Amino acid sequence: MVSITAATVTDLRFPTSRTLDGSDAMNPDPDYSAAYLELSTSEPGLTGCGFVFTIGRGNDIQAAAVEVVADRLVGRELDGLLENPSAVNRELNWDSQLRWLGPDKGVMHMAVGAAMNAVWDLRCKREGRPLWSTLSHLEPAEVVALVDWTYLSDFLDPAQAREILEERRSERDSRIADLRRDGLAAYTTSPGWLGYSDDKLERLCRQALDDGFNTIKLKVGADLDNDCRRLGIARTAIGPDTALAIDANQRWSVPDAIAAIGRFAEFNLRWVEEPTHPDDVVGHATIAKAVHPVPIATGEHLANPTLAKQLLQLGGAQILQIDATRVGGVHDLVAMILLAARAGVDVIPHAGGVGLCEAVQHFAFFNAISVAADPSQLALEYVDHLHEHLDQPVEVTSGRYRLPTQPGAGTAFRPGTAAAFAYPCGTEWGT
Ligand SMILES: [Mg+2]
Questions:
Q1: Residue 265 maps to which CATH number?
Q2: Which residues place a Cβ less than 5 A from the ion ligand 1?
Q3: Could you say which of 105, 109, 219, 389 is catalytic?
Q4: How far is the CA of 139 from the centre of ligand 1 (A)?
């Protein structure tokens, strides 16, 4: 009998603030971090990995939360956990005492996400499949059974969700073949960090075109005149045919967002991301209506599928940007992908940080294979740094994500990473 023998949590921090990588209007000096969970088992060599991405201070709080949640899995028999992960998901989310700290939001819910992603990492490694493949080969009824429908069924009920999955089923193998050959479009945020100089912005825009990207995203929101100047530099560098998106990282009020987006009309924006507070569902709907047809995108800070449901019900987002570690893991992410399909909204996941590209690509591919109406409309964020710390770094060539081939959920860091980046005693941090 194989069982889970230990839950080890490590506070990993990468000193990205030293180079202003990742700087935006809300987050001027992030140190990309991960509260990293490893579930050891009694089967030699079998470890399940999950993490929560944070940007530095407070990663120790997140790590403590992951430890509290994951400790509940220690000593459990593995086959039982992997046979019915929905029961585990339910148990962790509905823990009557921990639920007081949410419910379904923030540090505790992200901790559940790390634990559930680690459970799925174990399941995939045992099956010898990457996560996208495990999910794509489930029967529609099995996918539907992953979702907790309690607060969602007034917008999408299990029967409707099953119908969407059944409809796509006959295309599954041909979609996998297409994605294996062509990959999935990546878009890049690398040129557009707010802390970069104009020269660096222009050089990186041209570089992105040379690298095969057809969508580039710039950070905005700190200063409107500065934003217009930088958008002008980028638009000139990339020409009229490459898509240009912007990300305000929640900086605007609702009226300020409407005014700013109006001022940017000349730049023909592909989307405007996080214009205001992520919980302001009605505010997003007001903005989307006022700036139509400019698409509004959000999701990386959406705490749970219940908020996503409301956003989609009110037309507050035309693009849903799921994040692999913001919500409660695999089950919540499958729910959000299905809700987006119900609303006719494209899923273009949030990535970057550290490990987020590696983890979220599996959900982007699952969506493209099993759920989305038109996979050719989809894309996935790509930022080219810190991949060397992951056990299975993403492969992005000619501006496209390649289908992962290794078993697992893409959530494992390289074995030597902790020695250098564990906080505060790793060699990168030690004094
Ligand atoms: Mg963003």
A1: 3.20.20.120
A2: 247, 273
A3: 219
A4: 33
The whole domain housing 181 covers 165-401
Q: What is the mean pLDDT of each run of 10 residues along the chain (431 residues)?
A: 97 88 71 97 97 98 98 97 97 96 98 98 98 98 98 98 98 98 94 87 95 94 94 96 96 97 96 98 98 98 98 98 98 98 98 97 98 94 94 97 98 95 93 61
pTM for the structure as a whole: 0.97
What is the full DSSP assignment across 239-268?
-SSSEEEEE-TT-S-HHHHHHHHHHTGGG-
Asked about 350 being catalytic, the answer comes back as yes
Query: Catalytic annotation on 219?
Result: yes
Q: Domain check: are 121 and 177 in the same one? A: no
Rounded to the nearest angstrom, the distance between the alpha carbon of 16 and the centre of ligand 1 is: 17
On whether residue 306 sits in a domain, the answer given is yes
Question: If 0-12 CB within 10 Å is exposed, 13-18 middle and 19+ buried, where does residue 296 land?
Answer: buried
Query: Residue 376, class by beta-carbon neighbours within 10 Å (0-12 exposed, 13-18 middle, 19+ buried)?
Result: exposed
Q: Cα of 269 to ligand 1 centre, how many Å?
A: 15
Query: In angstroms, what is the span from residue 204 Cα to ligand 1's centroid?
Result: 18
Structural domain contains residue 149: no
